[in-house]
Amino acid sequence: MTDTTTNSIELRLPSRLGYEKVAMGTAASVAKLMGFAAERVEDLKTAVAEACINAMEHGNKLDESLTVGVILSMDSTALEVKVLDAGAGPQSGVHRPDIDKKMHGEEASRGMGMFLIQSLVDKAEWVSSPPSGSYVRLVILVDKVKD
Amino acid sequence: MEETGTRVKMEEVNCSGGTVTVLRFSGDITSASETAILGTYHGLSPDTAKRILLDFSKVEYINSSGIALIIQLMYAAGRNNQAIQTFGLTPHFQKVFTMVGITKYTRLHPDEATACAAFAA
């Protein structure tokens, strides 16, 4: 995706849990306008919500003086969502949850957000750009649009 | 913006030849739901509530922190030898629950009658 100047929407959210639903609703509206199937819209909603929650909790440490930026860019091939925070980015890669360990108390029950994000969109990448912050970039492709 | 609070209604119903405890969730299930979900679960007697149905049919939003609470509930239920069946999840959240592996520990049923019948299976 190269042209983000004419087809983009930007949001700034407080680092307060619950406000991820604003980004989720906006992303869903844009995806519907682009013609994505309902199933893909639901995937995007969860991925965007999880990205915003990670940004609020881990990036901005729930510091309400810091905002989470959300930039939605659309073109004929894809919808891209960038979620930006003031943190250093994830300290480890995507971890596939081990449900057996979780069910036996050997692994924290939380920590599934990055896995869900990566599983639900066509492309997900986490970019650290200190000292300004970091972002996660999500892409869902138009060629997966279904009737 | 306030999160839509979690509500949990506990009922006891007769099905599959016995009593089943139903936890009917509504609203959002997030990190703010711990008291509602785990508090309600821990209020059940493990000696009498041996079969538990989880009803998600009125849940509007579940995030990964909310899923973690459900895992904690299932972990506790497993330790207490309680059987759990689940119904009412949207197709999207059925997919998400399957992705994270919860379906190894509970079956996801389309409706209450099917979920009830599964206790007899």
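qc> Strands of chain A lie at 8-14, 67-74, 78-85, 123-129, 133-141.
qc> done
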